[in-house]
Amino acid sequence: MTDAGVRPAESTRLLRIHEAAAEVGLTARSVRYYEELGLLKPAARSEGDYRLYDESDLERLRFIKGLRDDAGFSLAEISQLLEDEAARERDHVAYHATADPRERLRILRDRVASFEQQTQTLRTKIGRLQAMVDETEARRQRSLARIAEIERQAPE
Amino acid sequence: MTDAGVRPAESTRLLRIHEAAAEVGLTARSVRYYEELGLLKPAARSEGDYRLYDESDLERLRFIKGLRDDAGFSLAEISQLLEDEAARERDHVAYHATADPRERLRILRDRVASFEQQTQTLRTKIGRLQAMVDETEARRQRSLARIAEIERQAPE
DNA sequence: CCCAACTTTCACGTGAACGGCAAGGTTGGG
DNA sequence: CCCAACCTTGCCGTTCACGTGAAAGTTGGG
């Protein structure tokens, strides 16, 4: 209970939408669209209502971009995947607002569960891709076998 | 030059578009659209111009569907990925048309190269997904560490 | 041969994921 | 205080990947 104002630096500078978007390789339009879909909310707004993004926003945007580009998820699926974390995001404020360790633990544990859900989903996708690789490998082997056979029958 | 009509059994029954589509979990419209994009061509057409698909067509359709659903590739990317094989597909006819072992070897070798290209692309994608998994795992670990720390400082 | 069920091509409609513009407000250096 | 460069909220346009008829032709069992 000592030391009242526990809200010091946040250390990272806040970025405006174009800066933030460029930082993670997106367009401002996309970022606004993602917000419209409820995928994220800027950490703050300026006096004149400019969107302001912090480092955790950038992480989130990078994650979204990864899910979209690398994993090929639709924004609806991403929304689904981040749904839990979106609820936690509301807790994020609560996390910094409360000093109650029990509350903080609850929030952190939910977050861990969310991460586990995400890795699970990603691993499932990896599994399906691996199956496709195996399939293709098998087809390659079959072709190699036929090549060998032909070479046996008609050596050049 | 002996034996004019060399087109005997093909063994597998030919399916019409709805049957083929249902078999691989697609719609007839999608299959026609894929043909329009040049992703495949039915093995044959009936007297009255009905599309007729054989087993290799189904394999191809399943592969396309896998690339679309599991890998999340766009149809343009899939087209790119199958491009080589599409050229080989034209060779497919040639393969059965020729009895020349040297020509058959060339076709088979090209096919092997195409398979290797495909697995390479898929493995790259798997790598990016794995990186995301690692990232998420790291974040989970960090949360776990903070949980442990809080539990040390304020044991319930 | 007939007819219901399937298919053809053509064409317009739709939802997702933005792009781009207009009309106005905000920032911040000079 | 001024103004260029940024931002805001609409809102309409576009591309992709199909969905959904319409109008006509094909298949195949009875």
Could you explain the architecture of this structure?
Chain A has 156 residues and is mainly alpha-helical. Chain A has a single domain (17-153), classed as Multidrug-efflux Transporter Regulator, Chain: A, Domain 2. Helices cover 69% and strands 3% of the residues of chain A. Chain A contains 5 helices and 2 strands. Chain A has helices at 17-24, 28-36, 55-69, 75-97, 101-153, and strands at 44-45, 51-52. The first copy, chain A, has a two-stranded antiparallel sheet. In chain A, a hairpin with a 5-residue loop joins strand 1 and strand 2. Chain A starts with 16 loop residues before the first helix and ends with a helix. Mean pLDDT of chain A is 88; it is low at 1-9. Chain A binds chain B through residues 63, 66-67, 70-73, 101-102, 104-105, 108-109, 111-112, 115-116, 118-119, 122-123, 125-126, 128-130, 132-133, 135-137, 139-140, 143-144, 146-147, 150-151, 153-154, 156, and chain B through 63, 66-67, 70-73, 101-102, 104-105, 108-109, 111-112, 115-116, 118-119, 122-123, 125-126, 128-130, 132-133, 135-137, 139-140, 143-144, 146-147, 150-151, 153-154, 156. The structure holds a DNA duplex (30 and 30 nucleotides).
What keyword list fits this structure?
DNA-binding; 156 residues; two-stranded antiparallel sheet; homodimer; mainly alpha; disordered N terminus; Multidrug-efflux Transporter Regulator, Chain: A, Domain 2
